[in-house]
Each structure stands twice: as structure tokens, then as C-alpha cells.
């Protein structure tokens, strides 16, 4: 009996903007850093996607592709609010909820079928309730495991509702024609490597000899990939209550004016947040920078990583880029800075590129070693550079 439901909201950030500003409806809308600020696209409305605009594309490129687009900067707090409303719907049907990001979750409704009817019925009710109670459109997939449910929710996007009935033949009918990039672990790099081997569709992969594939990509990867290609996934809905974000912020005793001083603070925050991610065995798919100015106006900027990470370096790189390129300081004093790791996933569930480069793995091992030393000798024992030594003693009130 299928019991897994995957829900993914359509054009999420853009949908919330359209909900709050109905005049945007039907227009090509891009949510992201403005093109003159060297930002990236978070998401685009389907009207803008028709011009080739995609998530994570540099905003300057998006502006060239779609010169008439209307631009909006992300309002993360508002999106989080809408995400909570959607969760309130889920919670009425099950407590087995794995939240993957603000707009995406897996639900295991096995225990709810007696009360509410089949998983299909529950999926339809959830889709209906989300629309009527939050004004947002969700695409929903129902299947016997998480992988197939996710594939299903994407099949008829936008406004999709797809059930894949149990049984290999149903999985094969859906999976075989899809590109291998739909398989977990196949990112751009792995996809290119597979294409070089002549493997483009999932059906191509299934026609291969397992030994042959193992020799090229390692036994474990080959086995996992071939299982997924047949629609087999034993992953459970992990509802361990991963909090939505993990962050560190500080209100300074004296406002900061010097960008170097701000960067030193942010470096320390990223270092701490990444340590806490590793301690909790989590990785983050995105990071948010929060700035409160001396006049109490506040802004936040968000960006996403290509792959979830628990390392301080990419966190800091993203935060520093946001501070330099997407925050207009204009000589204003900064009262508070904050860094939050968002889109948290369990480290062992974080998708890794199958051909993931050795460099990252080395950095991961180094980070684990550093955490061990810190465990022994305290936080000051090891830092990633000399930046921390120069940090002022301007600690104010720590928060979070
Ligand atoms: P997605 O569900 O990937 O995208 P979407 O909801 O905008 O569109 P779709 O209808 O195809 O589901 O991501 C959810 C939100 O996360 C998206 O609205 C914006 C944000 N996001 C980023 O900020 N950067 C990114 O690179 C991606 C992929 C998403
Ligand atoms: Mg979505």
C-alpha cells in the first residue's frame, strides 16, 4: 500500500509574492538579487521561466533573457511564515513529517489511513487544504517510497497530483524515459560523466551490467544507482524534528562601521555554525545573512549552495559575498549581524555527487579533526585562519 506523500509548492517564493501583490499575477516575475547587484535568481514565475530564467542563474543573465521581468528581493521571513501555515495542514493528517526545505516535505501517512482514507485521498485533501488555507498551489506525489513520491510530485508540475501504484512495472513505466539526472546523487558532474558513457535515460542505466558500472563508479554507488533506477528506495521519512535553521547572531556593544570588522564577526559566526552543524550531523542547503542597522532597520539576504554543506568556508564565502554585493551599507552603522544555516538535511542523507571531488572530502576530514581537537581543548584551540585573532572584544549580547 503506498503511504508516502511528497509535497512541493509551485514557484514558491514567486507564489508568495503574487499572493501578497496580486498585480504580479500572470507577469514574468523574478525573485532574487537585483541584476545590478551581481546577485542570483532564487526563483522565477512560470511566465519568466518561459524565457529560460532558472533558479541559481546570475541575475544579470536572467535580466538579459527576460528584459521585461519584474524583480523582487526575497522576503525570507514571509516565506517562513507561509511555510508554517503549510505545515499546520500536514500536522492535521500525520506526525510523520520530514521537512526538506521551506517548500518541500515528505509525509508517511501509513498510520493515518484508517482515520482519513487511502494515501491518495489524504494527498488530495492536503493539496486542497493548502490551497484553501494558504492560497498556495502544491504539487503532490504519492508512492510507496520517498524517491518515487518525489519523482511523482514533479511529473505534472505545476499543480500536479500523481500516484505511482505499487509494483515494479508501474515504477518502470514512470522512470525508464526520465533522464538519469532524476536519480539522487546524479548532479551535473556525474550526469556529464554518465553521458560520456552513453547513459542518458534511466532505461540506459538499467541495460548496463552492474559489474561494468561498479568498475567505473565504485560498487556502492553503482548498486545504489541501479536500485533507485528500479524505483527501490528504503529511506524512511525522518521526522526527527530537524529545526528549520541553526544560527548565530550578535548585537554589538558598539555599532560597526568597518567592513573588515563585520567580516571578522561573520567569519567567527560561520565557524561556530558549521561546528554546530557537524556536531548535530546536519548539513545546510542555504545560508541567510541578517543585518540590523543603527536606525533599527533590518534586512536579510539568502543564498543557496549547489550541494548541502557543513563546512565553515563555503558558509563564510556566501555570507561575505552577500555582505559585499547585496547589502547597501552606505556608511551606516551596523548594530547586529547574524548568520543562519537554512534548508537543513541530515548529513548522511545529503545528496553527494557520486564523483564528488577529493578536495571537499579532504576538507570534511579536516573539519572533523578540528572538531575533535576543540572537544578536547576548547573552541579557541583551532581556527581556520588568523581572522579570529583580530576580532575585537566587541561581544555585546549573544543570541540564539
Ligand atoms: P524549488 O521547489 O526548487 O523551486 P520553486 O518552488 O520556486 O519552483 P517549482 O514550482 O519548480 O517547485 O525551491 C523552493 C524555493 O527555494 C524557491 O521558490 C526559491 C528557493 N530556491 C533558492 O533560493 N535558490 C535555488 O537555487 C533554488 C533551487 C530554490
Ligand atoms: Mg517548489
CATH third-tier fold name of the domain at 245-381: Dna Ligase, domain 1
Which ions, cofactors or small ligands are bound in this entry? Answer: thymidine-5'-triphosphate, magnesium ion
What structural category do the secondary elements indicate?
Answer: alpha+beta
CATH superfamily of the domain at 245-381: DNA polymerase, Y-family, little finger domain
Explain what the structure shows.
The two termini are 43 Å apart. 39% of the residues are buried. This protein has helices spanning 12-20, 46-49, 59-65, 76-93, 113-116, 119-134, 146-155, 168-175, 188-196, 202-206, 210-217, 219-229, 259-279, 312-326, 358-377, and strands spanning 4-9, 29-32, 41-44, 70-72, 97-101, 104-108, 138-143, 161-163, 245-256, 282-293, 298-309, 334-346, 397-399. It has 15 helices and 13 strands. Among the domains are: 172-229, 5' to 3' exonuclease, C-terminal subdomain (DNA polymerase, domain 1, Orthogonal Bundle), CATH 1.10.150.20; 245-381, DNA polymerase, Y-family, little finger domain (Dna Ligase, domain 1, 2-Layer Sandwich), CATH 3.30.1490.100. It has 400 residues and is an alpha+beta fold. The chain has a five-stranded mixed beta sheet. The structure holds thymidine-5'-triphosphate and magnesium ion. The site of thymidine-5'-triphosphate has 15 residues, from β1, α1 and β3.
Amino acid at each position: 500500500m503506498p503511504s508516502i506523500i511528497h509535497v512541493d509548492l509551485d514557484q514558491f517564493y514567486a507564489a508568495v509574492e503574487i499572493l501578497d501583490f496580486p498585480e504580479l499575477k500572470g507577469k514574468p516575475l523574478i525573485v532574487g538579487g537585483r541584476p545590478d547587484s551581481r546577485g542570483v535568481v532564487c526563483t522565477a514565475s512560470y511566465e519568466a521561466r518561459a524565457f529560460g530564467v532558472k533558479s541559481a542563474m546570475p541575475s544579470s543573465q536572467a535580466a538579459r533573457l527576460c528584459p521585461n521581468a519584474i524583480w523582487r528581493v526575497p522576503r525570507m521571513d514571509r516565506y517562513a511564515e507561509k511555510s508554517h501555515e503549510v505545515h499546520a495542514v500536514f500536522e492535521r493528517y500525520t506526525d510523520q513529517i520530514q521537512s526538506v526545505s521551506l517548500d518541500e516535505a515528505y509525509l508517511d501517512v501509513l498510520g493515518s489511513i484508517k482515520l482519513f482514507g487511502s494515501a491518495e485521498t489524504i494527498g488530495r485533501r492536503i493539496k486542497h487544504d493548502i490551497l484553501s488555507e494558504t492560497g498556495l498551489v502544491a504539487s503532490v506525489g504519492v508512492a510507496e517510497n520517498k524517491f518515487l513520491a518525489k519523482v511523482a510530485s514533479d511529473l505534472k508540475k505545476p499543480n500536479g497530483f500523481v500516484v505511482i501504484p505499487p509494483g515494479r512495472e508501474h515504477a518502470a513505466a514512470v522512470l525508464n524515459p526520465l533522464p538519469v539526472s532524476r536519480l539522487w546523487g546524479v548532479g551535473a558532474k556525474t550526469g556529464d560523466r554518465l553521458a560520456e558513457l552513453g547513459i542518458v535515460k534511466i532505461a540506459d542505466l538499467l541495460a548496463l551490467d552492474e559489474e561494468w558500472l561498479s568498475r567505473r563508479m565504485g560498487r556502492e554507488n553503482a548498486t545504489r544507482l541501479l536500485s533507485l533506477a528500479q524505483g527501490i528506495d528504503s529511506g524512511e521519512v525522518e521526522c526527527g524534528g530537524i529545526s528549520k535553521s541553526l544560527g548565530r547572531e550578535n548585537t554589538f556593544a558598539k555599532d560597526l562601521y568597518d567592513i573588515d570588522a563585520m567580516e571578522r564577526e561573520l567569519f567567527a559566526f560561520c565557524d561556530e555554525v558549521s561546528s554546530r552543524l557537524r556536531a548535530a550531523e546536519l548539513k545546510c542547503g542555504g545560508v541567510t545573512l541578517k543585518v540590523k542597522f543603527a536606525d533599527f532597520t533590518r534586512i536579510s539576504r539568502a543564498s543557496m549552495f549547489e550541494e548541502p554543506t557543513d563546512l565553515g568556508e563555503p558558509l563564510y564565502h556566501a555570507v561575505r559575498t552577500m555582505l559585499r554585493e547585496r547589502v547597501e551599507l552606505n556608511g551606516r552603522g551596523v548594530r547586529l549581524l547574524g548568520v543562519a544555516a537554512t534548508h537543513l538535511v541530515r548529513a548522511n542523507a545529503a545528496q553527494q555527487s557520486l564523483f564528488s571531488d577529493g578536495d571537499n572530502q579532504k576538507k570534511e576530514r579536516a573539519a572533523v579533526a578540528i572538531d575533535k581537537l576543540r572537544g578536547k581543548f576548547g573552541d579557541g584551540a583551532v581556527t581556520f585562519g588568523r581572522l579570529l585573532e583580530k576580532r575585537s572584544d566587541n561581544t555585546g549580547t549573544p543570541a540564539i
